[in-house]
Design a protein that fits this description.
The structure holds 2 protein chains of 2 kinds. By secondary structure, chain A is α+β, with helices and mostly antiparallel strands. Helices cover about 25% and strands about 15% of the residues of chain A. Classes of the chains: A alpha+beta, B alpha/beta.
Chain lengths: ~150, ~575
């Protein structure tokens, strides 16, 4: 399974991943200039906060959000292992928001769905990794990821 | 994110692209691709580095960082991004004027019209200190009244540039007031350009001339100097004088091609400025700062071309410097004899440097008000690597001329158009529709399809517009005149666009200015500008628009068909 690796040495906190995730994934128009003016405000799936570090869903192997979801809205793609929200069935109970250890699930009160990173599972390559100017974000096999010493 | 498909429409430039790729020489296009995706915050004008508490951004998708540390919101950030560009652009003009005046005052040039030169030097000094009272006579009263009411009438460098620059520092001026400060700074630049044009006329004369251009003008058997960018015309004249004695050819890139009695053939336009060095037919380059890519130094070193910068810390005596440059070029030619000179077979002729005085303004005004002309388009700007080089200029000119719209151009846009024969009087009929061709036949001597009004910094466009308004008896806001910056790249062009809007000429600007992050600033550029000046600055956010679509969009306005993207247009006023 491939996941996004974040190299904290390379992350400069420039927020480009947030900006382009918000545009390409979260917005309706898919163009920055128009996305800026959309209501409700598009919600990026990646967070750059505190010490420069871009954080998005870790697609945990023992995912608490999967267990907490009362009606099977939070699902794991059996082929890729990626966890995603099946938006039509979400009842906006925010259980997943409460249990996520990374706090990366956004409760969207206007859309009444939980919003989280699905690692751009329907795209060729995650947008955040593609736009990262320093290469702090990259797509790696989870096995290799574990071997990396921090 | 977009990747450009075709780099240039210029065949002479394209000839060198595979060679550069083979050699591993990186050109502007390669570096642009390396920069993608460009910073979205800077592109939308939502970033700020004005103090050391930052850098700050206004994040459009998060509530936690919508405001900068000092409290600047997206509207202020965007309008200040524009202001910063305009300030830099105006200072670029003032820098040139300063160099020119310094040379004239030091009596380094013999003016053709001494009294006019002295008068204009005094006017420039008055402009810098107090806003130039005498110059105000040159502008129509209605314009001056509108400027005075909005508070944007130039009041000298201290009030216009210094004060406006501090708007980026702090204060509580809102988006609209800050925008007016940008207009004020832009107008000072417009005044300075007009005076510089007058000074050039007084010192060097201002006759239009037919001039050969494009890379085919480079010579195989002669030592060749290329002048890059803008620097003191006095030094340019001295170099040409010294070079003529030693039979050294002097040509230019992004520099004023006409400096009576000397002509500097434009070798190429801004976008491909690195390529003449790859021909092997350039022995020495003299470079200023403005319009000069810093990459030239590395490319000159790679192709063994000598390089002399003009804008140095210590003043240099122009006579001695010119002599040294020519001598260095002769020596360079000697040791470069083994280098193959690969000169593309591309040579065009162009009539350049026309002015309102060379044109029958009454006829043009009559054709415009009588409906023989659908409108007048001013094509301005410089190449921008975001677009296929020259394609937007050429497409707009082609489409406009076919549709009965008179096209004017200036500066580097003229060079771009001249490479495709638009400025060659012999090719006039090929490019023009019947209406424009008929007018051009009678409006002046031997006019080409597109009329070049000289360098942007010499204010030829302003002079033309004022003459047009005077000849038609109408104000500019009532006339179907549009400016199109089809591929702009320099800050001076943003300043010029604002000054044209302030004069009542609606202006299309590509690429989008860094204001798209703020709907309020975008609205002020159209609504506030429209109510104050009767014109607006139209910034399109669609990055993928093809040149033909741009032409179609502007043609809709010229054809009095509603332009949905521009909203309430200034045209409704003269449509009645």
């Amino acid at each position: 399974m491939k996941v996004l690796m974040v190299d904290k040495e390379k992350c400069t906190g420039c927020h480009q991943c947030e900006l382009w995730c918000g545009t390409e994934i979260a917005s309706i128009s898919k163009e920055l200039a128009q996305a800026i003016n959309e209501t409700p405000q598009p919600v990026p799936r990646v967070y750059v906060e505190g010490k420069p570090f871009a954080l998005q869903c870790r697609h945990c192997e023992e995912a608490p959000c999967l267990d907490a979801c009362p009606n099977g809205t939070m699902r794991r793609d059996p082929e890729t292992g990626l966890i995603y929200v099946n938006e039509p069935t979400c009842i906006a109970c925010w259980m997943c928001v409460m249990v996520c250890p990374f706090g990366i699930i956004s409760p969207s009160s206007s859309l009444k769905v939980a919003i989280k990173c699905d690692r751009c599972r329907n795209m060729g390559y995650p947008i955040c990794a593609e736009v990262c100017p320093t290469g702090a974000l990259s797509l790696v096999e989870r096995k290799d990821y574990r071997k990396k010493k921090f | 994110m977009e990747f450009i498909q075709k780099k240039t429409a210029d065949n002479a430039a394209e000839h060198f692209l595979p060679r550069a790729a083979d050699k591993g020489t990186k050109l502007a296009w390669d570096r642009f691709e390396g920069q993608l995706p460009e910073c979205g915050f800077c592109e939308s004008g939502l970033s700020c580095r004005d103090c050391l508490q930052g850098p700050c951004i206004s994040n459009p998708f998060r509530d936690s960082n919508k405001l900068g540390v000092c409290g600047k919101d997206k509207d202020i950030l965007a309008v200040q991004s524009l202001l910063r560009l305009v300030l830099k652009g105006t200072m670029a003009t003032l820098d040139q004027v300063g160099d020119f005046v310094e040379g004239v005052v030091a009596k380094k040039a013999k003016p053709r019209d001494k009294s006019a030169a002295e008068r204009i030097v005094c006017e420039i000094e008055a402009l810098l200190k107090g806003g130039g009272a005498s110059l105000k006579k040159a502008f129509p009263k209605s314009l001056l009244a509108a400027w005075e009411e909005a508070g944007i009438l130039p009041q000298g460098v201290a009030r216009d540039i210094f004060k406006a620059s501090q708007k980026t520092e702090g204060g509580v001026a809102g988006a609209e007031e800050t925008l007016l400060w940008a207009f004020k700074a832009a107008l000072l630049g417009a005044f300075a350009r007009k005076l510089q044009g007058g000074l050039k006329k007084a010192v060097f004369g201002a006759a239009p001339a037919e001039i050969a251009l494009d890379m085919g003008v480079l010579k195989k058997e002669t030592a060749t100097i290329l002048l890059y960018g803008r620097f003191s015309p006095i030094l340019k004249a001295k170099i040409a004088e010294a070079a003529a004695k030693k039979k050294v050819a002097v040509m230019g890139v992004c520099t004023d091609p006409l400096l009576g009695p000397y002509l500097f053939s434009p070798v190429t336009s801004y976008g491909s400025q690195e390529l003449p060095l790859m021909t092997g037919a350039v022995d020495l380059i003299v470079v200023g700062d403005q319009f000069v890519n810093p990459s030239l130094a590395a490319i000159a070193a790679e192709f063994s071309v000598a390089l002399v910068p003009t804008e140095t810390l210590k003043d240099q005596n122009p006579d001695a410097l010119a002599k040294a440059i020519v001598e260095k070029a002769v020596n360079a030619f000697g040791f470069r004899r083994t280098i193959v000179r690969d000169i593309p077979d591309a040579k065009k002729s162009a009539l350049m440097g026309l002015s309102a005085a060379d044109l029958n303004m009454k006829k043009i005004a009559a054709a415009l008000t009588g409906g023989k002309l659908k409108g007048i388009a001013i094509l301005a700007g410089t190449n921008n690597v975001k677009f296929t080089q020259d394609l937007p200029f050429v497409t707009l000119a082609q489409e406009f001329l076919k549709e009965g719209i008179l096209c004017l151009s200036e500066g580097d846009a003229s060079v771009s158009l001249a490479k495709y024969g638009f400025l060659d009087p012999k090719q006039r009929e090929k490019h023009c529709g019947a209406g424009v061709a008929e007018l051009l036949k009678s409006a002046g001597q031997n006019l080409p399809a597109v009329i070049d009004l000289g360098l942007a910094e010499n204010g030829g466009v302003t002079e033309f517009l004022l003459a047009l308004a005077a000849a038609s008896g109408k104000s500019l806001r009532e006339l179907p005149v549009l400016a199109c910056f089809a591929e702009a790249n320099r800050s001076a062009e943003a300043g010029e666009a604002l000054s044209l809007v302030a004069m009542g000429v609606s202006t299309y600007f590509w690429p989008c200015l860094p204001v798209t992050g703020s709907p309020k600033t975008m609205e002020a550029l159209s609504k506030l500008a429209n109510s104050t000046f009767g014109a607006k600055l139209i910034v399109h956010t669609d990055k993928k628009m093809e040149p033909l679509a741009k032409a179609g969009l502007i043609l809709k306005v010229f054809n009095r068909v509603a332009d949905p993207s521009a909203g309430d247009r200034p045209w409704t006023e003269w449509k009645k």
